[in-house]
Prior knowledge:
The strands form 3 sheets. Strands 5-6-7-2-13-12 form a 6-stranded mixed β-sheet, with helices on both faces. By secondary structure, it is an alpha+beta fold. The chain folds into 2 domains: 2-182, Chloramphenicol Acetyltransferase, CATH 3.30.559; 199-385 and 394-456, Nonribosomal peptide synthetase, condensation domain (Chloramphenicol Acetyltransferase, 2-Layer Sandwich), CATH 3.30.559.30. The protein has 14 helices and 15 strands.
Amino acid sequence: MRLLSIVDLLFLLLEKRKQPMHVGGLFLFxxxxxxxxxxxxxxxxxxQSSKTPPTFPFNQVLHNLAYWEVDEDFDVEHHLxxxxxxxxxxxxxxxxxxxxxxxxxxxxxxxxxECHIIxxxxxxxxxxxxxxxxxxxxxxxxxxxxxxxxxxxKSLSQSPNETITLPLWAxxxxxxxxxxxxxxxxxxxxxxxxxxxxxxKPVVSELAKSLSQGSDSNFVRTTQxxxxxxxxxxxxxxxxxxxxFDLERFKRVAKNLNVSINDVVLAICSGAxxxxxxxxxxxxxxxxxxxxxxxxxxxxxxxxxxxxxxxxNLGTHLDSPLERLKLVHNSMNDGKSRFGxxxxxxxxxxxxxxxxxxxxxxxxxxxxxKQAFNLIISNVPGSKKKLYWNGSELRAxxxxxxxxxxxxxxxxxxxxLDRIEFGIVACSKTLxxxxxxxxxxxxxxxxxxxxxxxxxxxxxx
Length: 461
């Protein structure tokens, strides 16, 4: 039995029919060149027939919104889906399937996750081996984005020759000698209360400092986000779109402009959003504000939620890409500096207090026309080494995250090898042509590359 943390409980309380609180990911695999015609079917049958029970966190079922307990009546048929897309199945048809499934709620009477194996996807290019997809979704009360990525890495292999006979949800059996580092520590209710009380004084002190920063242009207030088309009431319908970019392009821009890669990512998202909203005559006069998750995970665990949020000024009211980047860089540094003065528990509690009115808003819609932020933009670190599943190479992974009522778009990206993989989720009934965002991201990146070229050739200082 494991007690729910405050953050875990919050995700469960926030969940509604039109506001599912699960995160997910689409993983594209390329089959071995010598794969049999029934290669994917064999993988599925192997998982279906396995007698190995699920391990943490895949064996956890919710009990009375108070704690997690082991599911003693696990039914693999409820969690594992095997489908074949109708031919010809291009990426468009694959994303349409993920969009539909990402809008469906998970069953709280069972462990909160699903695994979909998807066949029928056309090869990446002519002459390439066949591909198949894995879409996995798991409730945000069980894991955060960093933990979810670690679960993926630990369930796959770094060797194309290793045969994995255990199902993905029994991955802890492969790491049974590392359980102390993978599992979060068990904590008593008394220990949790004691830890929370210890944060009171430093959190109050930091909140007071934040109030005194009202005139600081780098400090983003929770009342600063403007009204926009992004902040309408949402439905349960989802549109998922995804694309890959070379990581080296972002590194080059970051190096030339003396900022972090994450700053560059946020600035490029800012420019793409500016173009997207301008195309609909919906660009607010005031800058959009992004809620950027900040990982507080200091260990190698792969479960639970250990993160806080920084409010980032995206500078979408500015025409100059460099001026937008400067605003992004300064507001992110302000948030990181503030969190750097606090412990993990203090940061989480500071965030809960600072954004408490927004949590009430999402729960009750008391202030439907006022939001603390306009959208979430999240960057999750992935594997720097190639990953395989029984000889199939993982070619791409695209994260799919959550939407809140009043925030109709979420941009999440994950690094894998030498690429950055973008996964954009939006309410399909609220925002049109979200797929255009991928081209707009490319356009913005090209603009920054042109600036870098001018710096490298001495045209610009």
